[in-house]
Amino acid sequence: QITLREAGPTLVKPTQTLTLTCTFSGFSLTTTGVSVAWIRQPPGKALEWLALLYWDDDKRYSPSLRDRLTITKDTSGNRVVLTLTNVDPVDTATYYCAHSPYFDILRPFFDFWGQGTLVIVSS
Amino acid sequence: SSELTQDPAVSVALGQTVRITCQGDSLTTYYATWYQQKPGQAPLLVFYGVDNRPSGIPDRFSGSTSGNTASLTITAAQAEDEADYYCSSRDSSSHNLLFGAGTKLTVL
What we know:
Radius of gyration of chain A: 14 Å
Strand content of chain A: over 45%
Mean pLDDT of chain A: 96
Distance between the termini of chain B: 37 Å
Order of helices and strands of chain A: EEEEEEEEEEE
Low-confidence stretches of chain A: none
Mean pLDDT of chain B: 96
Oligomer: heterodimer
C-alpha cells in the first residue's frame, strides 16, 4: 500500500526558506521508472506542478520557479525534500507530493497523492 | 511554453452525460491525464492515456483526444461526481508537466 505524507511549517515569513518533507512508504525511489513530484495549490486556485525527482536522481523544475526550488532525496531513502527560497505571500498554498509508478513520456500521471500541507506566508 | 485551457464551469443533470474538455497544443503530442478533486481533498487520478482508468474508478469515466483537445466524458453522471476536474500533460517544448486551470462540475 502506497502512502505519502507531507510535513512542514504552517507559517513562514516572507523572504525565508520553506522546507517541506514528503515521507512515503510502499515503494522505493530506487525502482526504475518511479518518481515523486511536488505540486501546490493556492487557496481556491488551480494545481501547479513544482518539481519532479526521478528514480535515477534526475530532477525537473517548473521554469517559473526553477531558481528558487530544490528537490532532493533524503539519505533515509523514503523521504523527498523540497526547498523554496525567498518565499512571498503568493507562495501561500497547499503543497502536495505525489507518486508516479513508471516513466511514460507520453502519459505522465500520479496515482497516489499525499493529503497536502497548507503553508501560509505572512509576516 | 504550452498551456492547457479548460472551461471554468460545466453543469450536467443527474444521470445525463457530460464532456469536460482540455485544449492545448501539447495534446497533439502527449496524452491528457485527468484528476478529480473534491473540496478539502487531494486530487484523485481518474483517467490517463488512451484508455487507462485506475482501479476503483467507475467505468462511467472515459477519455478521448481529437487534435489538440482532450475530453473526459462522464456517462450517467452521479451526484458524487460533482467536483473540480483538472487535466494535465507535458509542455511540448520542455517536456515539463502542466495543469489546466480546472473545471468545476455541478450535477443538477
